[in-house]
Each structure stands twice: as C-alpha cells, then as structure tokens.
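Project outcomes to date are best conveyed with an example. Our students and postdoctoral researchers have been running inverse folding experiments weekly, and each run begins with a structure described purely in tokens. The record below, which covers 222 residues, was selected by the lab manager from last quarter's runs and is presented without edits.
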C-alpha cells in the first residue's frame, strides 16, 4: 500500500479510537517510526502531511534527517531507541524529543550536552513496565525516584513517560499504569502504543503513539 494511503488509514483509526474514548484527536500525536526505511519513505510521508518521525538509532537518524529538516522546517524528530551514553551529545544535537531516558548516567550525559549545546530537546523517561531483564527502561519500582533525580540532581525538565509493554502481554494494564504515573507526576506527554496496540493506548490516555510497520511496511528482521 502506498505510504500516503496507509498514513490516512492510521489517522482514521486514531480519530476513531479518540472518538470511542471521548478524546480530542488533536490531543494524540502520530509519531511515524521510519527506522530501517530509506529517506524516500520519509519524503513520501512528509508529502502526505506527516511531520513527526521516530528513529531508534542516532547514527541512522543522523544520516537521514538533517537534509530533510532543511527542506521541511516543521519536521520533528523523536529518538525512541535505547541510547548509549557516548551518543548523548549527538542525540541532543539531533532530536526534538528523546523518549528513552532511562538511567542516571544517561541523565548526566544529556544534562552536560544540553548545557554545552544550548539545545534542549524535550525528555521522556522510559519505564520498563514489564520489568523485563533484557529491555531498556527504568524498572517500575525505581521510576519515581529516577524522575526526582533527573529533576533535582541533574536539573532536567522531564516532559513525560514512555513504555514498551512485554510483547506477549496484554498491554492495557501497562498503559494504565504509565498513564497513572504521568498524572501523579503532572507529566503532559505519554508515549505508548505501536502498530499492534495504539488504539488500546489511546483508550488509556496516550498523547503520542509510535507507529512504524503499519505505515511503512514490514522491516527486515534484525
Ligand atoms: C520500532 C519501534 C516502534 C514501532 O513499532 P511498529 O510495531 O513497527 O509500529 C515503536 N516504538 C519503538 C520504541 C520502536 O523501537
């Protein structure tokens, strides 16, 4: 299916999910996850009116986005993948939103990069809501202490939370938990929901859904 058409379908599904939840569709931002797909795919999406994109690797994003940004000033880039501390400066230089802040060392590196560059991407803390050992994200039980440390020890403004529920689990309780923590902490951005579960995420209050394969097609296996 052409990208313009799959984008239109996803937008319709987002609007319908908002309608069912009694939410304003304008309150949900579609982050089009273009990882592994070439710049041509991003250009096709831009032509169809999509301006917010997500990438999970700094290197790949650095190769694709700066040239596109010059031609499309409204373009917004979210970095959504696990971030190595030594990539923090490049991430801060490149991203409008970093969704994967998940440990003290990374918070320190991002804080340094913000001070040095004068550039301040919005920051989301990624929570490993399933407490899966192999997965990025701060463990559930440490999330509130980590948020406090980001603010108080590192002087970072945190805008929201992000999660990726366990692949085999019902995502709903994970989404509900994340939304509750965001509300408790007064955090406006809640990034949750992917191709397979974004409607459930919207029902639970997602403000940002990260949709890749349902827009750009299947990715080669990693
Ligand atoms: C790849 C990715 C997505 C998009 O996944 P799809 O299932 O292709 O929609 C969303 N969030 C993160 C963090 C990802 O790495």
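After processing, the design step wrote out the following sequence:
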């Amino acid at each position: 299916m052409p990208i313009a058409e799959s984008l239109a379908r996803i937008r319709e599904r987002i609007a319908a999910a908002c309608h069912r939840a009694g939410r304003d569709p304008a309150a949900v931002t579609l982050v089009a996850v273009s990882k592994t797909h070439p710049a041509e795919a991003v250009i096709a999406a831009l032509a169809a009116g999509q301006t917010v994109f997500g990438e999970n690797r700094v290197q790949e994003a650095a190769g694709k986005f700066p040239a596109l940004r010059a031609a499309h000033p409204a373009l917004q880039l979210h970095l959504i993948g696990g971030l190595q501390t030594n990539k923090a400066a490049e991430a801060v230089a490149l991203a409008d939103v970093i969704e994967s802040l998940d440990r003290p060392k990374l918070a320190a590196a991002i804080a340094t990069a913000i001070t040095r560059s004068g550039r301040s991407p919005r920051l989301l803390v990624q929570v490993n809501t399933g407490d899966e050992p192999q997965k990025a994200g701060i463990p559930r039980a440490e999330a509130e202490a980590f948020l406090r440390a980001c603010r108080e020890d590192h002087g970072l403004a945190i805008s929201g939370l992000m999660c990726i529920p366990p692949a085999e689990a019902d995502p709903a309780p994970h989404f509900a938990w994340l939304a509750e923590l965001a509300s408790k902490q007064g955090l406006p951005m809640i990034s949750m929901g992917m191709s397979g579960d974004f409607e459930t995420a919207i029902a639970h209050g997602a403000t940002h859904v990260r949709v890749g394969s349902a827009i750009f097609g299947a990715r080669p296996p990693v």
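The mean pLDDT is 97. The first strand starts at residue 29 and ends at 33. The training component of this project remains on track.
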